[in-house]
Amino acid sequence: MTADTYAEAHPASEFLSGVRASIPVIVAAAPFGVLFGALAVENGFSASEAMLMSAAIFGGASQMVGIDLFGARVAPWLIVFSIFAVNFRHVLYSATIGRYIAHWTPLQRFVGFFFLVDPQFAEAEQRVEKGRSLGFAWYMGVALPLYVFWIAESGLGAVFGRLIPNTQALGLDFLLPIYFLGLVMSFRKRAMWLPVVGVSAFVSVVAYHTIGSPWHVSIGAVAGVLVGALFAPKAFREKRP
Amino acid sequence: MSTIFWITLAGAVLTYLTRIGGHLVLSRFERIHPRVEAGLDAVPAAVLTTLVAPAAMEGGPAEVAALVTGVLIALAGGGMMPLFLSSAAVLILLRNIL
What we know:
The structure holds two protein chains of two kinds.
Chain A: H1 2-9, H2 11-42, H3 47-56, H4 60-71, H5 76-87, H6 90-97, H7 106-114, H8 118-129, H9 136-160, H10 175-186, H11 193-210, H12 215-231
Chain B: H1 3-26, H2 34-41, H3 43-58, H4 61-75, H5 80-97
Helix pairs in contact in B: 4-5
C-alpha cells in the first residue's frame, strides 16, 4: 500500500508501474501484431504501409478487417467505414473512462484517448476498480510500450511473415479470444456481471448470424450495457447532491 | 499518395473520433444519471464478451476446451498470465492431436 501511495506522488514511478502492467498485454498481443504484418503483405501492403497503419489506427481487429477488404478489392470508402464500424465500441470505452480523468489537462485527454484500445481500457478499469487514481503518467506507461511494440511487430511480420510455419497449429488465430476471455473474467466481481455477460454473448451471437460482423460487437455490447443500466443496484440509487 | 495511404488516414481519423467521442458527448452533462453510471460500469464485460462469444460458437472442441480451461483457471483465482498460457497450451495441444 505504501508503494502505491508513493507511486501516485511520483510520475516517473507511476509511469514505470504502468509499463509493468503493459508486459502481459504485449505478450498476448505480439502474435497478433506479427500476424497482421504478415497478412498485410499478402494483401498488397508494403512493410512501411503496414507499420503506418499500425501507427495511425492502432486497432488490431479493425486493421485486420481493413487489409482483408483491401485484398478483396472492396471500394475504399467501404473499407474506411468498416474500420469505423469495428472500432465503434470505443465510444463506450471513451464515455466510461472519461469519468475518471477530470484531473487531466485538455492536451493530456487529446493524447490519451488516441491510445484507448481494448487492453488499455481494461487495465485502466481494473486500476480504478482497485480504488487507485487514473493518472496520466501511469496511463501512458501502459500505452507507449503497447504502441511501440505493436508498430514493431507489424514491421517484423511484414518482413519475416513468410517464416511463420503453421499459424493454425500454433493457435495464433485464437490467442486473442483467449486473452479477451481473461479480461472478461477479470471483471467478474462487478454488479450484474453474469447477466451482462450472458446477454452480451447471446445477442452478439444472434447478431453475428443475422446482421453480420462487425456490428454484432456494438449490438451485443449495447444489450449488455442496457442490462447493467436497467437492473444493476447502482441504477436504483437515489441521486446524490 | 496511394489508396492505402488515404484509407489509413481516413480510418485513423474516424477511429480517433470513436476513442474521444464518448467522452466529448458525456462531458457535456454536468451530472451523470445513476442508470447511465450503472450502464457504463457494465461496459468492460459487455464489450469484451462480444469479442469472445462468436469465436467460441464458431470454434471446434479445441477452441471450446481452451476457453473452458480459461474460465476454470479464473474461477480458481488464477491471474491473466496463468489463464492465458494454460488456455493457449490446451488449444495448441488439442489442435495438434485431434
